[in-house]
Amino acid sequence: MAFSINTNVASLQAQYYLNQTNAFQGKTINEVTSGLRIVDSGDDAAGLAVANGLRDSQAVLTQGVRNINDAQAQLQTIDGAMSNIGNLLDRLNTLATQSATDTFTGSRATLQAEFASTQAEISRQATAVGMNSGGPMVGNLNVVIGGGQSVGGGTVTLGLANAAVDANSLGLTANTETGTVALTTNAAVVAAIGANTTATFTFTAPTAVPASYGVAGGVVVTVGLGGVSTQTELLSAVNNAIAQQSLANPDFAAANFSASLNPTGHLTFSTTEPIAPDAPTVAGALGGAVALGFAVAGTAASALGAIDISSQAGGAAAVATIATSVATLGSAQAAVGKSENILNYALNLAATQVTNEASSESQIRDADLAQQAANLTKAQILLQAGVAALAQANSAPQAILTLLKT
Fold first, then answer.
1. Residue-wise pLDDT tens digits, 327-347
2. Where are the alpha helices (DSSP H) in 230-311?
3. Nearest Cα residue to 281 out of 265, 292, 266, 297
4. CA dihedral sign of residues 314, 319, 323, 325
5. Distance (Å, rounded) from C-alpha 270 to C-alpha 259?
6. What pLDDT does 301 receive?
7. Which among 191, 202, 176, 190 is positioned nearest to 262, based on CA atoms?
8. Beta bridge partners of residue 304, listed in sequence order
């Protein structure tokens, strides 16, 4: 090899390798100090794209877990309220049963007052947790969790569409048909009956199942008015006639019709049929019905009324109604419990997905510190060797001076 002063090839080669070692050491220090294998996009562009996708999915799922926890807290609040409403129903049943017995000698008006206030408290508590009819928590509620290929695939639907538990939704209200003549005294009853010996009422449910209680044109109830001269005798005659008709017609019996006099003295027919669209109507015919306040060719206005246990018959009817309410509440509680279970399953899956995706991202993005520690030691040794070699290469041209000595 020729000796040259102008171009020190050995020095240039040493500098090249020293620069490579220095860059290697810098990259190794970056990975050790950051803990990341991919510090810059150029380190692994394809891997970075995959890792970013996994990180984004984890962010969605982490928020999804929070959504589940929020929904669970709301459902637990609702569940507690429903349990308390169950206690209120127990109290209603106690009051109705007390009123239904013939041997009760206390004030049924007092029982009715507590009954009405308890009904109101049921509706208030249902509204407080959004479980009243039309309330914000009644419906098919979507909880977005993530982890699916689409929003739909990552969404859990809670079926609370039929889980309203206010008094009306539990059937603790009644439809009423009220006459137009006030029977405020026994004398008023006698005057209204006049010379008539019977009163005929037709009960019709236009869209009920079966329609009109299985009888074309509705169920006709004929009330014998012979010997009736007091309010008590009138109500007894009407309710006995309804009871007799109910024995022959189970569909009509299921409607739980009963007659009473409201506080203003109007003859009132109540039923536990739904408010709409099956709200029944009552029409009167000749033979006393006109005098009792029901038009011959028309019907009284349908209205929403409270269950009345201020009479023995009303208490007995309320017991059956509340039994249905208890079953309705049980169905609502089952819907809430099912929703809680579904969210628990979803939470388990989301937590597993977060863990697995974090592990996958780590394999791509995180540095192997054991390996990088070894690389750092290697880089330091190479760097020291390179500096020493460069020093030797730089001093090599001085040997030419020996040739120039004379």
1. 999 999 999 999 999 999 999
2. 231-248, 250-254
3. 297
4. positive
5. 6
6. 39
7. 176
8. 175
Domain ranges within the chain, ordered by starting residue: 49-168+323-356, 173-306
The two beta strands, 173-182 and 302-306, are antiparallel
Residues of the chain with pLDDT under 50: 208-209, 276-277, 286, 288-289, 291, 296-304
Quick: pLDDT tens for 108-124.
Answer: 999 989 998 999 899 89
Question: 367: which 2 tokens?
Answer: 């540095």
Please give the CATH topology (third level) of the domain spanning 173-306: Immunoglobulin-like (2.60.40)
SS3 state of residue 87: helix
Q: Which amino acid is at 213?
A: Y
**Residues paired with 157 in a beta bridge:** 142
43: left (phi over 0), alpha (psi -120 to 50) or beta: alpha
- 21 and 382 in contact (C-beta within 8 Å)? yes
What DSSP element (H or E) covers 302? strand 302-306
Q: For residue 338, which of 67, 188, 91, 141 has the smallest C-alpha distance?
A: 141
Asked if 182 contacts 264 with a C-beta cutoff of 8 angstroms, the reply is: yes
Closest CA to 170 of 86, 244, 276, 251: 86
Break the chain down into helix, strand, coil percent, rounded to 5.
Answer: 60, 15, 30
Residues 182, 384: contact at Cβ < 8 Å? Answer: no
Cβ partners under 8 Å of residue 270, min gap 6: 174, 175, 176, 257, 258, 259, 260, 305, 307, 308, 317
Question: CA-CA-CA-CA torsion for 310, 313, 318, 321, nearest 10 degrees?
Answer: -150
Query: What are 48's two structure tokens?
Result: 């970075």
* Contact in structure between 309 and 93 (CB atoms under 8 Å): no
Domain 49-168+323-356 sits in which CATH superfamily?
A: f41 fragment of flagellin, N-terminal domain (1.20.1330.10)
Q: Tokens 């020190």: give the residue.
A: 8
How far, CA to CA in Å, does 242 sit from each of 305, 310, 334? 20, 19, 36
Contact status, residue 303 vs residue 175, Cβ threshold 8 Å: yes
> What's the confidence (pLDDT) of residue 179?
66
Name the nearest CA neighbour of 349 among 154, 219, 59, 162. 154
- pLDDT for 303: 46
Under a CB-based contact definition with an 8 Å cutoff, are residues 318 and 91 in contact? no
What CA–CA distance (Å, rounded) separates 227 from 213? Answer: 31
**Closest Cα partner for 292 from 176, 203, 178, 174?**
178
